[in-house]
Structures are given as C-alpha cells and as structure tokens.
C-alpha cells in the first residue's frame, strides 16, 4: 500500500493553485488588479453568506488578526464594506461592495471557464468525482485525542 498521506497533499495544493492562478490570470485579462489568496478566500466566504469577521476567520482557519488585516486591505481597495450588524450594534458585518460585486460576476465567469477547461483536460466524470469527494463531510481533522478515542472503542 502506498503512503496516500504524502501523495495526496501536494496534488490537492496543486489543484488549488491551478484554480487560483487561472482565476487571477483571467481576472487580470478582464482588467482587474490582482488580489491575494487570503483576499480571494474572504470574497468566497462572504459570497457564501459568512458575514462576521470572527466567522470568516473560523471558516478559513486563520486568526482573527489575520482576517481583520485582510478585511481592512479589502475595504481600502473598495472590494468589501464593513457595516454595523443590525442584530448586535457592537459587531460588524462584511458585505461585498458594488465594485466587489462586479469583480465577483467576472470571477464566476472565470471559474466557469476554468471548470470547462478542466473537464476538457481530465474528463467530466473525473471533475464530478473530484467535486463530490471534496464536498463530502470529512468530519473533524484527526488529532491525537481523536485517535486515542478510536482505539478505546
């Protein structure tokens, strides 16, 4: 049996990098300035309805400080806006700005092109299988505590 732990991590990273680099290239061709990978991930999270900075940090598995710094950069660039949460005046929520919405529309079109290209390269069934596997609930990450619990049951 091969050591899948070593062989799957690098291709997963390459797949992410392939999409991110393709997305950045297509957006540059559409006239957009480049954004960092953390900024891309924040835009995706906010686009999926994750609005509070703490939730964004938790979803992206980054510190609140990192999320705050990335959000501040994006506010300065005009991609997102911070507003007061109507349910909790002490909290802020993140919304995509009008400029961010235009970029998001171009991003969706670019992702469609990238998926179409990937289907041409590796086949529709392979892309569908990959998507299905990545969308499954993998459960929590394995920890020493989880491993010990598994051995006890």
From TrEMBL:
- The domain of life is Bacteria
Key word Ligase present in the record?
no
Q: Which PANTHER family match?
A: CONSERVED PROTEIN, HTH-TYPE TRANSCRIPTIONAL REGULATOR RV0880
> Which named protein is this?
DNA-binding MarR family transcriptional regulator
Q: Which InterPro entries match?
A: HTH-type_Bedaq_tolerance (IPR052526), HTH_MarR-typ (IPR000835), Tscrpt_reg_MarR-type_CS (IPR023187), WH-like_DNA-bd_sf (IPR036388), WH_DNA-bd_sf (IPR036390)
Q: Which residue range or ranges hold the HTH marR-type domain?
A: 28-127
- GO terms assigned for molecular function: DNA binding; DNA-binding transcription factor activity
What are the leading ranks of the lineage? Answer: Bacteria, Pseudomonadati, Pseudomonadota, Alphaproteobacteria, Sphingomonadales
Gene3D superfamilies annotated for this entry? Winged helix-like DNA-binding domain superfamily/Winged helix DNA-binding domain
**Coiled-coil ranges from the UniProt annotation:** none
Cite the entry's keywords alphabetically.
DNA-binding, Transcription, Transcription regulation
